What does this fold into?
Amino acid sequence: MKQLPTLLLVLVLSVSGVASGSEAKCRQIAQREYPNDARMQQFIFDKQIAAFQYMTTTATDRDACAIALREHPEDFSMQKFTYDRLR
It folds into this structure.
């Protein structure tokens, strides 16, 4: 029974690590697309975060996910677009 709290802690830390990594990736995408426009960076960041969350929670078709990831490894928004088009 003592292992349960430890497993929960490991799970929470791994999920938060993925989340912070995806946030950094989304920030990089936004800065790459609009290096001199903070408002557009925020817009792109929000769009990328929403697409990342969609792809990690809602997208269930493994084949479509694999294709979307292969075609757009550096852009969550385009992954979502591709996934939706294939479904």
